[in-house]
Amino acid sequence: MEEYGGGDLLSEAMGSGARVILVEDCVEAPAAFVLHLLLKRAFAGAGAAAFLALSQPFSHYDRILRKMRVVEANWTGENAGKFIIMIDDISLLEVAARGSINDVLDFLHYCVTLTSEMNCSLVILTHEDIYSSEDNMGLLVHLRYIADLVIKAAPLSTGLAADVHGQLSVVNKCVFSEQREQTLGYGSA
To answer: Which Gene3D superfamilies does the record match to this protein (predicted)?
Structure first.
């Protein structure tokens, strides 16, 4: 995958100006690497991020950013780049809200309002297998509705391969105000 805005589908989709980005994964195909790429894009452009509902300790994200060679810049107090509100695992917000989907939806509505008022992005990771039953489908349907860009990681339909771990489906609702879906493979480089 090229670094920034190259010819690949994921870079094209991430550069589309999407304000709300939903990243869906499952146990067989984790998509945490997409969050890492979005963080790298934000920090590379003198941006910043606010982490909410972290599924990993903060030191994990620090190690990932160091591995990706994102160095700390001298902050002037002014955010010149892209600001990202990152929710790494929406199910943790649901736990914090004591199972109240309505409280989570109210909070998400507030975050979506912030994206337009503060010119920032909201990135949400959800695990599709948690919300795949009919009882829990409401939150996933709402997340898909508010998202400008949906990036879904899934296992390969042909089975495992040595260098490809799964496939990403990208639904971009921003492009020409019409929905566009494309699929690409991902794996170790």
So the answer is: P-loop containing nucleotide triphosphate hydrolases
How many domains, the chain? 1
116 part of a folded domain = yes
Range of the domain at 174: 20-71+80-186
pTM of the model: 0.78
Q: Kindly report, residue by residue over 119-133, the tens digit of the pLDDT.
A: 888 999 998 888 777
Question: Per residue in 21-30, pLDDT tens?
Answer: 999 988 888 8
Q: Residue 152 is part of a domain; what is its CATH number?
A: 3.40.50.300
